[in-house]
């Protein structure tokens, strides 16, 4: 049978994202993809998906989704409020950083994202949507990707690749990350260039010592930063060249722009530095008003930092474990058990559990 | 003072520079000027790396005078990737394959080219002469960027050279044929834009329904063919009805 998550209320800006649409930048096609790829990878790991599978990127305020499938396992990673409404039960909060087993008719209310710009929802098996140029990432500006290339809308139906029947054996427990992922604190690390030689010594020193904050113009394309002006040597313009996520371009007004995943593929402003790949998830989580500063590292250092980060991510994924009961009883596991088997299993040990 | 990465710039041959774009990309710069010879070297390296991608290469993005090399920093590293690119540079000098030649219809009706009269005035030319000059050249697609399918085409006849509009438009209609500096383009999407709009092309340069949604690729050549308003409307209707095959715009070189 067909199985869907149906959008009962769309929220403010939720899009399908995977790790990006690579290979088409030569045609002017932006990469797009998850602003916080680490969170998406972990959410996928919690529901047993390959790390790069597409999930739902939720900005600001999440959608309300109805489960129109016998069952589905979901997991959110990021600072997201969630509640579950199930017929005949009191509404209850669901925690991020663990999986939850949902059943037909459940209403999953994804609330405010608080503390970062985005959070991610993964569903076991992923979405049965047709990739565009090899990717399910939605690039809203040009309407590219599944769902017509736009954010979730009212009554959209997100088809599930798994119809729910095969969503793990009945006794498969939900899984949790022992600890939320750590992003580190302190300055965003950058490698100077490619046009750092087009800035004055004073501008470079200012860039690496001053505090900036994210202005109101902040979206998936980039963050306009506000702070001390950076002076060019000569013109701020160059013949347009390629851009990457994390490029920090400085137009003639001296105010830096940190480019994020939906950045255009090429641009004609000088770029003072590039955020290192390990710190892109932190950059992608920034919101208007957030303060930030920059620290220069070499490419060798950036590579070492990225390798350590990948080891940490592997470690977090290895540490994923069955949800442990808090305070002696795990209600979630109980609910999940009920969900998957369809009835309360009294015969096989259910009666040993304290009744609440 | 800022720490500068020792690896940031290294010369290979005379004028090639490697400039760093973080730990997952670098530029190979072949010069500063926007000219065909420089761009041809960019396209040749692009073609070579595409034909035989080194391990860890994600993609390469050709622009006017530089090639952006994007790699997976988990699978490889800067030193290995730069060495592979240097090897590709030192290898075969075969030029990139000759691009395709397209004949794009354009209607220079003032309704469809709202800047035509002003541009002609500023250049001291008649509207007809502007259209004639624009249609007289064969253009080269130096690069795509700004938005999917947006081609930067040169070289516009020198008589038509004018800087971008001082006040960019908030909305440029899709299909608008425009000029700025020594470049011309066709806007594939409705978007903001600061180029002078001199006409409209009825054939979409981006169409999600086509096997290759983006019509032009870097290295292609374009000739504009003036059509009157009736012909423009006819083609637009055929496109809307799905009866127009863009392959018919391919010309034998």
Automatic annotation (TrEMBL), chain A:
Superkingdom of this protein's organism: Bacteria
Chain positions covered by the region annotation Disordered: 153-182
InterPro entries: CT_A_B (IPR003778), Cyclophilin-like_dom_sf (IPR029000), PxpC (IPR052708)
Protein name: Allophanate hydrolase
Entries under Pfam families matching the protein: CT_A_B (PF02626)
NCBIfam families reported for this sequence: urea_amlyse_rel
Domain Carboxyltransferase residue range list: 26-312
GO MF entries: ATP binding; hydrolase activity
Keywords assigned: ATP-binding, Hydrolase, Nucleotide-binding, Plasmid
SUPFAM superfamilies documented for this protein: Cyclophilin-like
Taxonomic path: Bacteria, Pseudomonadati, Pseudomonadota, Alphaproteobacteria, Rhodospirillales
Keyword Phosphoprotein: no
Naturally occurring in which organism (per UniProt): Azospirillum humicireducens
